[in-house]
Amino acid sequence: MDQRIEVADAPPRGVGHAEPVSCVTAVVRAGRPGFASGDQGGTILFWDPATGRPVGEPIAAHDGWITGLAFAGGVLISADDDAIRRFDPDTGRPVGEPLSVAGGGRLAATGSLVAAVTDGHLRVWDAPSGAVVEDMPLPRRAVLHAFALFDGRPVALTADEPDRELFPDADADMRLVTIWDVAAATPLLPPHLTPEDRGVGAFAEVAGRFMAVHSTDAFSGDEWTDLYEAGHLHLRDLATGERVATREREAGWINEIEVAVVHGRPIAFIAAEEGVEAWDLERDTRAAPDVEGLLGSVSCVAVTDVDGVTFVAAGDNDGGVDIRPHAA
């Protein structure tokens, strides 16, 4: 039987964005944990988890769709199709020159490092200084979905069009998901196909093992191996490649996965079309938080801790950001 994580009633929602919310990230602003959200009009808002309302002044960060937000080394980083920019979350002012003027798509961060796919390369920067730490050419145009350090080495999860030599029968809407050893510029594990156009994922440490949490399944040789719908979730050991667990879901396509430690347990928070779910990665149990406050389908999710309380922020396609505390 699934063990559910109860979610307290949501605080009143703020006015939110005038455009659909495209991304949300945890930040530290004025010394306090909170959230930042970006929309398809180029605006960034900051949010107070305790009230669920916007705080401070918006940032007119881009002229169009914000494709990625990340917080690294005390700096807020945002991307659109034309540039990757840095901002001081306390003042909203730009920090230095853009990291890239070729656009960045999705962003992912760990510690003081931020990663993006730009100009055909997967690049990693030190966010405060803007210095390039890694620069890995990609074989094809790809979307970055996750970035972390595995045994001190940078690893990344990308999705792109299938390699027709490896997968000659792949449909046009499928995506090839690759977990990269960025420093070596080689796949850490054999690539996998997903039967839809997202292939999202995240990294997590589960019971002392470093795992990839992703929405694909394996292709082996010339035959499919237990191909699930991409709405299902899989847990794979990066050291061995073993698929440790599979979670069958019925809540729509996955748009984003965020992993956080809640009361000592790694929890995968899933932004799906029909709401936000939580999967206990160690106990292999699922929770489905109440997301009735969301007006549109859920596009993104982020998690932060405030004074020992875990807050989850979910952005939707109607311009709303719903923030709720999770209580185990």
UniProtKB/TrEMBL annotation:
Domain of life from the UniProt record: Bacteria
Presence of the UniProt keyword Ribosomal protein in the record: no
Transmembrane spans: none
Claim: Repeat is one of the keywords in the record: yes
GO biological process: ribosomal large subunit assembly
Keyword annotations from UniProtKB, A to Z: Repeat, WD repeat
Alphabetical list of PANTHER family matching this protein: NOTCHLESS PROTEIN HOMOLOG 1, WD40 REPEAT PROTEIN
Protein name as annotated: WD40 repeat domain-containing protein
